[in-house]
Backbone:
């Protein structure tokens, strides 16, 4: 076990931050094509520390996928494919992350949101009646953003439930026994691996804060 086992822990921390900041932002967001952008402006300018919550949520979204890809690469490198329960549950979580991120991209209803909503609905156009239900009609309109908002709010909690299932499957063999050997000779988690997790958390949290507070504006430009 090396530092590559740190990414799952870091991913869980950032995912929890995403849920927390998302709930705060959702309490002030208006899912309406006329007022959505203005509600984002209200959050940034008038809500106490609203700008911080919004930028943390935007940075956290990128960081979730960065850590997810590293987590998946670790699994591929160390043959986690042969632990199907953990692997399949992880892929379901990854798929939910993708859907949630695509939908969240549309919600501010800025200059690229209509294009994003059109692309998402066109991807599902081969499934009868689904696009009509998702759009609330035959084109992207006001009911679309309302449905997207509901899905964007619910799907992270669905993913969180599957995360617990993923951890349960992981501990069938033990998180310090990645190859699944049935033996008592296992690597103790404390204190060495706990120290490694804390070190990784410190590094990624510093990067997260610096990016959220100082580097988010240039990356937000189209």
Residues:
């Amino acid at each position: 076990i090396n530092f590559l086992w740190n990414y799952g822990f870091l991913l869980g921390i950032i995912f929890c931050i995403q849920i927390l900041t998302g709930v705060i932002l959702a309490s002030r967001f208006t899912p309406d094509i006329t007022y959505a952008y203005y509600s984002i402006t209200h959050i940034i300018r008038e809500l106490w520390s609203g700008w911080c919550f919004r930028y943390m949520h935007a940075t956290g979204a990128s960081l979730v996928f960065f850590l997810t890809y590293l987590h998946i690469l670790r699994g591929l490198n160390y043959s986690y494919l042969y632990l199907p329960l953990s692997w399949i549950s992880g892929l379901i979580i990854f798929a939910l992350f993708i859907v949630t991120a695509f939908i969240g991209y549309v919600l501010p209803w800025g200059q690229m949101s209509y294009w994003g909503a059109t692309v998402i609905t066109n991807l599902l156009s081969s499934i009868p009646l689904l696009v009509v239900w998702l759009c609330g009609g035959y084109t992207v309109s006001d009911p679309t953003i309302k449905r997207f908002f509901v899905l964007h709010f619910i799907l992270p909690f669905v993913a969180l439930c599957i995360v617990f299932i993923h951890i349960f499957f992981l501990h069938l063999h033990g998180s310090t026994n990645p190859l699944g050997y049935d033996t008592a000779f296992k690597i103790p988690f404390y204190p060495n691996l706990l120290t490694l997790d804390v070190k990784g958390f410190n590094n990624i949290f510093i990067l997260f804060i610096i990016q959220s507070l100082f580097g988010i504006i240039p990356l937000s430009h189209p």
User: Anything to note?
Assistant: The mean pLDDT is 85. The chain is about 70% helix and 0% strand. Residues 142-170 form the longest helix (29 residues). The two ends are 40 Å apart (CA to CA).
